[in-house]
Amino acid sequence: MMWAGGLPGLPMNGFKDHIVILCADIGGSYIDFAVADGAHQLSSRRRRPTPVGSMADFASTLAELAAPYDRGLPLHVAIAGVCDPQTGHTRSANIPCVNDRPLRDALMARLGRPVVIGNDAHCFALAEAMQGAGVGHRIVFGVILGTGVGGGLVIDGRAIVGVGGLAGEWGHGPFIAESADPGAVPALPCQCGQRGCLDTIGGARGIERLYQFFTGRGSDSQAILSDWEAGMDHPRHTMAMWLDRMSAGLAGIVNVTGATIVPVGGGLANRPRLLAALDAAVTSRVLRPGTSPIVVPGYLPADSGLVGASWLTGGPR
C-alpha cells in the first residue's frame, strides 16, 4: 500500500474509501480512541484513563486499543502538547511521561504500525477546516479558549506546524504593555517566561485573574460571564478590557494570515454572547471589509481531536 507523499498518513485516492485510520485524542485525564473511515466518520469509540507517569504504561494502553486492527493501519494521535516535527520530541504539561522523548518513534516501535502525532489545537483547527465551521475557507485559524489560549493555522487543508511545532501559539508574546494606569490590563507573568501574554488573561483562568485585579474579589469565570451577560455592573470593566485585548490579538492574526474564519473551541466557546461580542470587536479592527462573522463557535467540539487526527498527513510544514 502507498501512502501520500511517501509518509505515514492518508492513503492515496485510489484506496481511501476502503481504508480506516485509527485515531487517539490524548489529554491529561483520558485517551479517546476511535476508528475513522475513508470519509473521516468516527466509530468504535472507546476511552481509557491516560497513564501520565509511565511511558511503558502509556504505550501499552495505546497498543491495547489498537491491537484488534490490522498493523498496516496507521494510528493518528492528537495530544495536549507541543510536538517538534524536526526532532520528534514532545512536551506536555499534563502528560509528563512523554516529555523530551521521540514519542512517534517510541510508539511505532511498540505498536508495530505507522504513527502520526499532532498538537491537539492544530487538530481542532484541521477538523474545523475540513468538516466544521471552516468548510469552504482556504485559510482557517482555529482558536482554543479553555483554561488557557491555544490555536492552529490551516491553509489549503494542511495544518501549518512550524519550527519546533510552535505555529499557532497566538497566546504567547508580550502583547500587553506595562502600565501605571490602574484601569489598564495588567502585564502578568506567564508560564512561558514572558510578561503580558494573552494566555495570562485569555482563557477561563485569565478572566478570573482580570476580575480579581480590577475588583479585588475572586469569582468563577462562569459566574463572571453570567453576571456580565445579565448586564450587571461589577464585571463590565473586566470584560471590556478582555474584549479589547483579545480582539486586538485576533485581528492581528487575521490580518497576518488572511484567515477568513476563526472557529473557537474550549469551554468559553459555549458562551454565544461572548463570542458574538468578540466577533464584533475583531470585525471592527481587521483591514478586510466584510459583513460575515469571522469568530464563530466550532461545529465539532466533542470530536475535533479525533476528527482532526484523522486528517493529519505526517509531513512537517
Automatic annotation (TrEMBL):
InterPro entries: ATPase_NBD (IPR043129), ROK (IPR000600), ROK_cs (IPR049874). Signal peptide: none annotated. It comes from the Bacteria. Gene3D superfamilies: 3.30.420.40. This is ROK family protein. It comes from Nguyenibacter vanlangensis.
